[in-house]
Structures are given as C-alpha cells and as structure tokens.
Amino acid sequence: MAYVFVHLLPELASHGQAISEAPGMKTFAPTPITEALLFLIALVGIMLTYSLDVLATHERQAGRVASSLHTLNFAAISYLYAYSLPSLISTGLAYGVLFTIAICAHVLLADRTMAARHPATFRTRTRWFGTAALVLGLLHAALFHPVADLHLAIATAFIGGGLLIAVFREELPAVNRTRLGWFVAGTVSMTSLLLLALTHATH
Length: 203
Known about the structure:
single chain; mainly alpha
C-alpha cells in the first residue's frame, strides 16, 4: 500500500507530464488528455482485473472462461514485472530492491488467489504460464535493453492498476481481523524505506 501511494501514483503523474511535453504529442491529443493517459491505462488495469473477478464468481461456464482469462492476465502482469525490473533497478539499486519486495508480495497474493479460485488448473497450467512469462520478460529486457521510457511508463501504469485493486481487496483485511498495531507498523516502515530510497535516488 505504501508503494502505491508514495511512489507509484506520483510516478504516473510525472511520467504523464513528460509524455505531454514530448515532441508531436500535442498533435494527437490535447495536453490534459496526454497527461491523464497513464492514469487511463491504470484504470484499464483495474477494470480488467475486477471484470475477471466478477466473471469468476458467476456462472460455471463463465468461470471456465474466466479461468483462462485470469491465467492470461496473471502471465501478462508477470511478464511486465520482469520486463520493467532491469530499467527500474538502473534508476537506483535501493528502489529496485524495494520495488521487488512490493511486487513479490503482490505476486504471492495473486498466486494464492488463483490457487483458491481455480484449483483444478492452477497447478497444472497457471503457475507454469506465470513462470514462463517471468523468464520471457527478463529475456526481452536483456535482449532489447534499454527499455524505452514510454514503454516502461505504460507497463508501470498497467501494473499499477492491478496493484491498486489488489491493495484494497487483498492487502487490507476485514476490520474484525485486522491487528492495527502491525498494520500501522508495516505501513510506516515501508513508507520510511521508500522515502529513504527516493531521497538517495535523487542525489
């Protein structure tokens, strides 16, 4: 949660401004629209993830379709994580490590959710698709490095949409099951580490 609010949302805002100032962008769309472009991509990530969850909880036939769509979505996000990671680490080792920790926590939550919702296909297909997507993303980044800033920003925005909905759906437990002390301590600790990493990255 700290990663989303301390770094991801400000990063989308700054990238959006950079995109709007790029040569030729005003020809295609007004500046306010180009500045909001990455937030629109994040919104698509939220809508896609939520729509798949809705499908998975309805009719059995829709659930089978949702299982395949969930697998593709899980693989796509895993690929984007791996694809963007080398460029993120190059901006600062400390931030890259914290980004990896935050993303690993999200992947573990997604892994657990997929196992609970699609147990029949998860062990035989979904997990292997996710693993293959991670390897493919790393290979793509290694063979075609450096990643263009625009591509990196789009990938980060789409990932951010999935992270946002995961934060409010999975990482915030029910009120009657929350240990407030641990919640506050974890949030404050992660926020402090992120601020420290960002401070060093700017020097």
